Amino acid sequence: MPRFKGVTERDRRSLRSADSRRIMKRLIGYLNQDKLYMALAILFTAIATIIDIFTPWILGLGITNIFDSVKAGRGIDYGYLNRIALILLAMYITSSIFYFFRGRILVKITQKTVFTLRKEFSEKIQRLPVAYLDRFTVGDLLSRMTNDMESVVNNMRQNIAQIISAVVTIIGTLAMMLYIEPRLTIISLIVLPVSAFVTAKVAGISQRYFRAKSHDMGRVDGYMEEIITAQEVVKSFTFEDRSMTEFNAINDALYDNAYKAQFISGEIMPLMGFISNLGYVAIAVFGGFLVLNGAITVGSIQAFFQYSRKLNQPISGMAEVVGALQSAISAADRIFHVLDGEEEAEVEDAAPLDKLKGEVTFDHVRFGYEKNQVVIDDFSLHVKPGETVAIVGPTGAGKTTLINLLMRFYEPDHGSISVDGVDIRKLTRENLRSHFGMVLQDTWLFSGSIKDNIAYGKEGATDEAIRAAAKATYADNFIRTLPNGYDEIITESGSEISQGQRQLLTIARALISDPDILILDEATSSVDTRTEKLIQKAMDRLMHGRTNFVIAHRLSTIVGADVILVLKDGNIVEQGDHHSLMARKGEYYELYHSQFEGKEI
With a cut of 50, which residues of the chain have pLDDT below it? Predict the structure, then answer.
């Protein structure tokens, strides 16, 4: 891992151990949201475990009574044995009741934990900057929110009970063993540090494979999300074999790390069993010697054997707990990595702008997605209210980057951007973005009715406003031809309607939001000529009376722009209207002729 670079293996283990303790402490904080339920879970587990601890001792009393009766040649006291049996039955029933309620409480605690984590994760995504989210694939983020959270809750639910039960069992069992025979107890105690040492060593090795497994699970989900989304492209380019080869490589890495994680953590139990059996043999030999010498009764040695097993059970059980905890910690680490992401800083007590004239100024802006890779260099521009500014240039010139900076998806490294004379960094992002409308090349729609998709642009939009926006953008005609009209349900991909129709819906969505500044990013790049003209008419109506930024590759769509900016390597190399730029016969002239082969429109 990068955070361990340049340190020794011993330091790495120390750092991983510190990370695990920090993550575990944080998880416990989530589990302890409702202190009353957690206290009841601990109490019920402790009561049930204590009851179970006393059952071998009571059973030993009955066995001793039978042994003494047979040895003395007298009749067995069945009345005494019946009382022992009734006491044991009552104890078993009582402990089962406490275990039942303990289980229900733990389900409530863990489900509330994962509910809180999902809620915080979802809210965090909304507060994280686009620059931070760009580091992840969609599938990886979904994996963290689903697979990793399920791993946390499933592993923690049983582990909490086992940990509580193990602590109470070890303390109570040792107390009973000391009461029965201190010398035998010493033999049992030798097993504890040996078991703890082996468990710690094996768990340390398995932990890094659990972390790698969680990481590979995110890669698998991310890759599958991309492949499923782009199935048409995959099939049209006969990419199936290559996609399977790439998937198999990722899946093989997941299999390898998952196998090693499970195998190594699974070896803890057999090792604990071997160590426990050695201790058990020693107790049997020495215990038999004590019985022969009359230092201990048969019932007591039988009870001690059970306590020895009972002591080894939580120790062996803790081996499983450790393995499960490694998986939970690795999953929680991936979740907390997102929850700890640096959020977008907002200006406190920022004065909101109620209405914008639409004046925009870029003042010596410099920006790069990476420190050593400048995309925009010393960019300056003044846009008057109501102007339409078209931005053209080759791929990678910085066209979309300017929009990202204007919307504060990213912050400039140098210089400033202002609207109506106010530096946008002095406004909250919510207030700034509320004045913008966007129509993008990728027509994003969500699963729901057409009416809801249009109303997404304005909270509380009425049916009349929705229909008015649809009519104004020429979407009403095709909507009325649908079986359910405005109530027609479409999926996220919008495959039920054409690309052009989807674009008209996004334009209607932008219109209903009534923005002061409009951004059009290649809104007609993937439709036919007839639909393009219809969309262009809708956009002309949408752009009327607003400041507009238009990013276009089809130069025919921006001939009427007030100002055309030609970008190259992050700088304005030409600026003017269509006719003046054509007369100059520079970069714009070459771009235009490369599309229209010298035919002006």
Answer: 1-9, 11-12, 15, 598-601
Phi, psi of 371 (to 5 degrees): -60, -40
Shared domain check, 452 and 495: yes
Q: What is the 3-state secondary structure (H, E, C) of 472-509?
A: HCCCHHHHHHCCCHHHCEECCCCCCCCHHHHHHHHHHH
Q: Which of 339, 370, 399 is the last residue of a domain?
A: 339
Please check whether residue 573 is in contact with residue 398, taking contact to mean a CB–CB distance below 8 angstroms.
no
Compute the distance between CA of residue 305 and CA of residue 548 in angstroms, rounded to an integer. Answer: 84
Among positive and negative, which fits the CA dihedral 472, 508, 355, 563?
A: negative
265: CATH: 1.20.1560.10
Tokens of 375: 């995309």
Beta strands in 203-354 (DSSP E): none
Within 10 angstroms of residue 342's Cβ, the number of other Cβ atoms is 10
Q: Residue 247 pairs with which residues in a beta bridge?
A: none
Q: Identify whether 429 is part of a domain.
A: yes
Q: How close are the terminal C-alpha atoms of the chain, in Å?
A: 58
Give the DSSP letter string of 194-230: HHHHHHHHHHHHHHHHHHHHHHHHHHHHHHHHHHHHT
Among 179, 443, 494, 446, which Cα is nearest to 307's? 179
- For the chain, the domain total comes to 2
Q: Which of 247, 269, 261 is nearest to 330 (CA)?
A: 261
Q: For residue 443, give its domain range.
A: 360-596
CB contact at 8 A, 425 and 411 = yes
Long-range contacts of 407-411 (CB under 8 A, 24+ apart): 407/432, 407/433, 407/436, 407/438, 407/519, 408/344, 408/432, 408/433, 409/129, 409/130, 409/131, 410/129, 410/130, 410/131, 410/367, 410/369
From 276, 304, 339, the end of a domain falls on 339
Write the CB contacts of 427 (distance below 8 Å, at least 6 apart in sequence): 347, 350, 352, 353, 419
Nearest residue to 1 (alpha-carbon basis) of 252, 267, 338, 334: 334
What's the pLDDT score for residue 418?
92
Distance from C-alpha of 189 to C-alpha of 3, rounded to nearest angstrom: 39
Of the candidates 317, 245, 309, 252, the one whose C-alpha atom is nearest the C-alpha of residue 277 is: 309
CA neighbor of 159 nearest in space, from 316, 327, 34, 325: 325
What are the tens digits of pLDDT across the range 225-281?
A: 777 767 766 776 677 788 888 888 888 888 888 888 878 777 776 777 777 777 777
Which two structure tokens, joined as six digits, stand for 138? Answer: 């969609």
